[in-house]
Amino acid sequence: MLNALAAIARSRVYWFLVLIACLLLEGTALYYQYFLDYGPCVLCVHIRAWIAGLGAVALLMMFLGGPLAILGHLASLGLSFGLLRSSWITLGVERGTVVDSCTMDPQYPDWLPLDRWLPSVFEPWEPCGYTPVLPFDVTMAEALVVIALVWVTVSFILLLASFKNPKRRRDLFL
Length: 174
Hints:
Layout: H1 2-9, H2 12-34, H3 42-64, H4 69-95, H5 114-117, H6 119-122, E1 133-134, E2 138-139, H7 140-161
Antiparallel strand pairs: 1-2
Helix pairs in contact: 1-7, 2-3, 3-4, 4-7
C-alpha cells in the first residue's frame, strides 16, 4: 500500500488529475457566475484564487515531475488549507455563525492583483451572505468545505508517502 501511495505521490498522472479538478471547479464557478447570474463575493473570489494556485502547482508538477514531489505536495497542502479556511468562513457566513463584514475589496497583495489582472474571474460582484444551491440540495459552500477537507487529507497522505524512497524499477504511475 505504501509503495502504491509513493508511486502516486510521484506521478505526473496524479498532477494531471489535480489540474483537471481545478479546471472543473473554476469552470463551475464561472458557469454559475455568467450563465446563472450568481455573482461572486470576496470570499468566493478568494476560494477561486486558492484553486487557481492549486492548478498552478499541478501544472508545474506535471512538467517538473517526481524529484520535486515533496515540494509539490507541501505546496498543495498549504493551498488546500487556505481553501479549507476560506470555504469554512463562507459556510459560516452563509449559516450565520460567522459575522463577517465583507467589503467589495478583495485585498489581494500588491504583488498579486488578481482582480486587476483577470477581473472576469477574480473581481467580486456582490456582498457575502449566501451561495447557490447545487444539485441534491447542497449549497456551494457546503460542497467546497467537503472538497477542501478531502484535498487536505489527500495532500497530507501523499506528502507523507512522497518521503518513501522510490524503488529502482519503473513504476506504472511514472
